[in-house]
Fold each of these.
Amino acid sequence: MNEALAMLGAGFSLALEPGNLLLCLAGVTLGTLVGVLPGLGPVATIALLLPLTFTLPPAGALIMLAGIYYGAQYGSSTTAILLRVPGEASGVVTAREGHELALRGRAGPALGIAALASLVGGIIAALVLALLLAPLARFAVAFGPAETASLMLLGIAAAVALSPVPLAAAWALAALGALLGLVGTDVAGGRPRFTFGIPELADGIGFIPLAMGLFGIAELIRALGGGSATRRTPAIGSPWPDRRDLKGAAGPALRGGIIGSGIGLLPGASTLLAALAAQAAERGIFRRGGLWGSGEMAGVAAPESANNASAQTSFAPLLALGLPANAVMAVLAGAMFLQGIAPGPAVVAERPELIGAIIVSMLIGNTMLVALNLPFVGLWAAVLRLPMRLLAAIVMVLGCAGLWASSGSVFDLWLLLGFSIFGWALLRAGLEPTPLLIGFVLAGPFEEALRRALVLAGDNWGVFVTEPASAALLAAAGGVTALSLLQRMRAARR
Amino acid sequence: MLLAGLGLAALAVVSGQPFRLPSGRPGAGFVPGLLAGALILLGLLHVATVRTVPSAGGDARAALALCGAVAAFALLLPSAGFLPASWAAGSLALAAAPGLRLAMIVAGGGVLALASAGLFLGLLGLPTPAFGTR
């Protein structure tokens, strides 16, 4: 508890600096915008914005990027409720009941409850993060190289299990990502490998062109292919919920926040999973007699609180263990590396003010989001009529110029082109590239841990199963993979 | 099959790196060799077990226009300068979806290029010439 208070205390003054407050506002506003717009999710946005954050101080950059992620969860509810189209994946769950409420003329209160429930989830998650980060980091510090390698494998297994791609292909993508992550100078021997004599590759493949190409531009291609027909939205009315709505939503919001916070801590967890679990809990246990299917307010409050909480607590595996839990966290890990910060237990111990500032900014950002979402909900509904083509053109020009500004390398622009084409090819083949990105980010630490573990154990591979923590982590990775295989087989039979 | 092919190519490249160092320790090709082998096996396993995977879409016009925008920016930036590169990228990106006249695309690209130059060259002071080479 004292550690948590000290961390928050150290982060308070940093988070409250005017520049960081402005960046927090910019992040949550951008997040709401991309959450509202179906097609451009937070991964693509953060990937495309990476070059711009290069010029910012670390705290400001991370505060802004985090704001985009949880801001997108807020924005997604607007589209889900008004159009039954999720702006972001987790909005699918809110869309079920939220759109029914909108059709019954209660779009305003549903949007209001979504914003307030998200605030509740955000506050719960920020407290969970503050309380758990230091103990988690201490746990990770005790890990030797065998445990670290096994932990990395568990992270990849979890990302692969949740990927919509067939299991073998998802593992293959992770291996390909890891191979790409190992291009550059070999840390142990100091000699270049897989650089083909290209000096620009001596430092490895740039994270920004890879993330921008595979996620940003490929996502824009998909969104433009989906058409940009004018959308009509139902009447909204006042977004302020009445006392009955608040009473009905309070319990689901609190429970959703707790469930979402717990799920966000798991490697490989997603906001969609958190929203689904929270709604399932309400429907199956806590509010079985509700108006499910015809506009149940708990069906908005629980998933909205859960997805926001999960978005925030998914920072814990990254910050405390150095393990990106999903694609957004993998991009954020890249952003941290670009800022010269290696995510992991050391950053929690050595930079408590930075971690504290990120957590405090979440509390501030969530409050900003309610102020942005409740009074200006009509404005966000109007944004839905923005043509996708214009948005894509703005993003493309800013993205290319931003990449040039951050790296000053024309080679990186060609890399961006290569990864855009590859991202499009993966899209055509139905292969979602999250495992590749996670493999790319974890390749370096995994290789180092594996080599060190083998050297220390005298080339004995048995060390990975004789060390109890490593064996437990490997068993968890195997369990996650087996479970995912069973689920896919069951789905295929159906 | 593409994944298995990539694995095979990676294995060919990895073979130029030492799998083991003279001391017996894992060399620069050790982990990449394991990964390339895994990639080949998993790629083949995917081909053997999965018949069709639904495509997530993305039409050719959008792909060509957006990839063309990046290529145009990369080509024009060192030779013609920031403004022509941004104009070409913006115009091509605006042409990614049908329904906009050529004059609008060209003019829209110009507005985007000016805005981008204002932000990067004016506000952020990026040391890149608006026209021509350094």
Amino acid sequence: MMISQETQRAPASAPIGHVAHNGESDPKRDRGGPAQPMLIVRDLKKHFEIGGSALGKNKTVVRAVDGVNFSVAKGETLGIVGESGCGKSTTARLLMHLIVPDSGDLIFDGEEVNRVRGINIRDLRQNMQMVFQDSYASLNPRLTIRDSIAYGPRVTGVGKAEALARAEKLLGMVGLEPGMFALRYPHELSGGQRQRVNIARALAMEPRMLILDESVSALDKSVEAQVLNLLRQLKRELNLTYVFISHDLNVVQYVSDRVLVMYLGQVVESGPVGAIYGGARHPYTTALLSSRPSMDPRRRVKTPPLSGDPPNPINPPSGCRFRTRCPHAQARCAEEAPVLAPSPLDPGHLAACHFPQAAPAKAA
Amino acid sequence: MSTITTTTPAPGAAAAPVAFRRASKGFWHTVGRRLARDPITMICAVILLLIVLAALFAPWLGLDDPFKQSMARRLKPFGYQGHWLGTDELGRDMLSRLVFGARMSLFTGFVPVALATLIGGSLGVVAGYAGGRVNMIIMRCIDVFYAFPSVLLAVAISGFLGSGQVNGLVSLTLVFVPPIARISESVTTRVRNEDFVEAARATGAPTLSILFTHVLSNVLGPILVYASSLISVSIVIASGLSFLGLGVTPPNAEWGLMLSTLRQAIYVAPLTAILPGAMIFITSMCFSLMSDGLRNAMDVKV
């Protein structure tokens, strides 16, 4: 019983979020100006220690995220793709500081996160929110959805009446009639409706940036499309910036402006969506793309899709981490780890490969 | 049941649009409704209610003085001279002593469990939510107590502290803290890893607020179910302590103590002698069955 978004939606001019009435960003919150990236991530690392005794012996280290660099421009959607276990979700949680990075810097709108002169984590979380994959697990089953949405504003200093009003308004914005849904419990909603509630809950903090961690992956295709359209619409209305994490290449292609490909805790390729999908330079990206069934026979690639599982992140291969599965691997790949370097033709298209594939055969 | 009829809309409301702002049934509402539909639980609840009311209003029920002895009418059978349940080995009215004994027995069944739920529950929730080193320190200390059988532990602590009601309560409380802490810890550890707790942390909410709003509301149910199952155990162990002379002291009326003093009369007046035991059995049985019913009623994805 999805309610059509267009008819039930609250007017976009409402003062939710940091958005001024004309849809421009609020100068009071947009400190760095339009040219300053919303988020810069520099050499982010998180290694998990597993096993071993209480005294710290025999510990093994999982390099979940191992030196990740990227930036997110204001108002863009950055898609992050990769196989299961490549560190996508860990990266998302590191960005939110839900888990503390071992090293690396986050710079949010020109301010370093968690540094004396920078932005503290509490303020960061006012600016950056996250929507999780499991729509049911991410709502407290004992709270009505209105209380769930209002909880964030309530505990960060918004009055009760105002927080509840904001919650109802947001329900309208995500396409759920407040009168019908506000006092319901999560188990009374469908998966798509619950994910709309989760989006509303994230928006209740009036963030400027949303991290969508597999947020539509668990929904069935028709609902997924509705929620994707809702996300698009909200992005436009509220002037949001998205980091969109998914394993679904088609969805990432649909929503993203730029794409980041991760493999074993590292970024192997990044660039504009057209460049990645039209002319991938890293063999891993090529393999990923060829592993999805294409509607277009001309786009089908002869290269066989990837075989086998990714290597164990506890003990990654020397040099290039992809070399064990790479069809083009040579001696140099085992000795020297490739750095993320821009393409000679397109400085925005980076790949971490010693032998990047040539410019796209097919003209874009 | 009448619940079906209440949901049908009034005839006049049919033309009106869908009833907006319908308050949904919350978790506890659903649990209550399911409990009310469970006959065994309701029978147990009624029996317990009668016992509790009798115990509460014992002085005003017009019963005989539970301490008035009479050598002339010792161990008389049921119905003797207005003593409905006969008399005990010192000629005291059994009915009166059973009712007054219920006060102490229920007290020793309930108070240690309540105190232990407070202490053990807090320890478990803190250990579960904090995790890591804090968890390890708390839970290893708890494990030390866990290693002993509960009855033995109660006897040992009572023996160490000396007999008396307060010491009996203290020892029982200490006995119940470890299992409750253990349950709370495991439930909290599970809830803590749920995405909604993560989402709450992502709003920058203070830890205490997350604990009270998001964690407690989800761990309280299982903890209460478990604690309610301990009430019957507590009554039995408290009776055992009194039986051994470590809990309530004579001439106070308490079921375990009465069982102990009447056991010498088991061949002379068996029906009288088993009465306190029967009361312990009925009461603890009712608490156990109610706790089962509560667990079933809560076992619902709400």
